[in-house]
TrEMBL record:
Gene3D superfamilies: 1.10.287.440, 3.40.140.20. GO terms for cellular component: cytosol. It comes from the Bacteria. Keywords: Transferase. GO terms for biological process: 'de novo' IMP biosynthetic process. This is Phosphoribosylaminoimidazolecarboxamide formyltransferase. GO terms for molecular function: IMP cyclohydrolase activity; phosphoribosylaminoimidazolecarboxamide formyltransferase activity. Its EC number is 2.1.2.3.
Length: 392
């Protein structure tokens, strides 16, 4: 199959639409279920590249949760502790495979953004992973293969219309990529930069200590950024992205956005949130929305009389600003990557509030000295990679 006709492009009025291969090559995918659309395929192909590179860099199964051509979450398959199992809503599923743990992490880090995601898996989708996907609101999945039991579970989703794509793991794209904008063809060499530990060898701060676990987190951050719409920064802890800021014109706004997501990830682990008592039968999305509001500044939107009764069995106390700050002060050893240099130390000031200790960025700003000095003030270790990772 050299081409696949699609219903429409980014919007229903954009017709005709298709994906196709040039020359004699065939498409490296099979659609096993559903009818993926234009944006589905953009998410699928970007997500596949991300998880494939995460697997190559770490040796661990990887998963990504994509929305609108940027990852909402990305992670490798490390085991889940009891707290993570609870905040990712998989504590009722027993022991999970490494791939299922990877997707639980990728989906769970920012559940608000992951709602209606397109999933990418580095390995053959197993039954555990399919069971997690089955219970979530999602548009589709791409993987190098599917176990028979997993495929049957996925085919039953959305009344048989769930998008399931199988990609040839041996497919290698041409070294030059092209796209058109306004009828004009853009051409560039593919960004085939390999991200590994060697890229983190130029540590420019007084603190030179970056343990291997932090190097893994920094690699996850940089690989995630490679497929995130720029400007972008990514906070990572324990093998998973916990805050991704994408597509912001100002880098400090990006750092704040991603930092707030990282804070929310950690706040969801606080006793005040873990002990919330939801009404029976509440939908997963409604529960996630309620938690997001409860830990935010507009908490009265869910705690007001006449409102809380539809969400909680017992009205919870206000999670005060002081209590939240005290809890967040316990978050430590977070890694932060940036797809281009930090132009000011204010990015580091904001990162510190979210527990960042390790930083990777290209360097090259006229204010590098200020950024390094700010890292030194907080005892952070920062590596200059010398490589920009813009993605558009």
């Amino acid at each position: 199959m050299k081409e696949l006709e699609l219903k429409y492009g980014c919007n229903p009025n954009q017709k005709p639409s298709r994906i196709c291969m040039e020359g004699d090559r065939e498409l490296p995918i099979q659609v096993l279920c559903g009818k993926p659309g234009y944006i589905n395929f953009l998410d699928a192909f970007n997500g596949w590249q991300l998880v494939k590179e995460l697997k190559e860099a770490t040796g661990l199964p990887a998963a990504a949760s994509f929305k609108h051509v940027s990852p909402a979450g990305a992670a490798v398959g490390l085991p889940l502790d009891d707290t993570l199992r609870k905040i990712y809503w998989v504590d009722d599923m027993g022991e999970l495979s490494p791939l299922a743990c990877a997707y639980a992490r990728a989906r769970g880090a920012d559940r608000m953004s992951s709602f209606g995601d397109f999933i990418a898996l580095s390995d053959v989708c197993d039954e555990d992973t399919a069971k997690i996907i089955k219970r979530e609101v999602s548009d589709g999945v791409i993987a190098p293969g599917y176990e028979p039991e997993a495929l049957e579970i996925l085919k039953s989703k959305k009344n048989g219309n769930y998008n399931v794509i199988q990609i040839d793991p041996e497919y290698v794209p041409d070294p030059v990529e092209r796209k058109q904008v306004f009828g004009i063809t853009f051409e560039q060499g593919r960004n085939d930069l390999k991200i590994d530990r060697e890229l983190l060898s130029n540590v420019v701060t007084e603190n030179k200590e970056i343990p291997d676990s932090a190097k893994v987190d920094l690699m996850i951050s940089l690989i995630t950024l490679k497929y995130t719409q720029s400007n972008s920064v990514c906070y990572v802890k324990g093998g998973q992205a916990i805050g991704i800021g994408a597509g912001q014109q100002s880098r400090v706004h990006c750092t704040r956005l991603a930092g707030q997501k990282a804070d929310n990830w950690f706040l969801r682990q606080a006793p005040q949130v873990l002990n919330l008592q939801f009404v029976d039968g509440i939908k997963r999305a409604d529960r996630d929305n309620a938690i997001d509001v409860y830990i935010g500044e507009d908490y009265m939107d869910v705690l007001a009389d006449g409102r809380w009764e539809s969400v909680f069995k017992v009205k919870p106390p206000v999670f005060t600003k002081e209590e939240k700050r005290a809890w967040l002060d316990q978050m430590q050893d977070v890694a932060l990557g940036s797809d281009a240099f930090f132009p000011f130390g204010d990015n580091i000031d904001r990162a510190y509030k979210s527990g960042v200790k390790y930083v990777a960025e290209p360097g090259g700003s006229v204010r590098d000295d200020n950024v390094i000095a700010t890292c030194n003030q907080y005892g952070m270790a920062m590596a200059f990679t010398g490589i920009r990772l813009f993605h558009h």
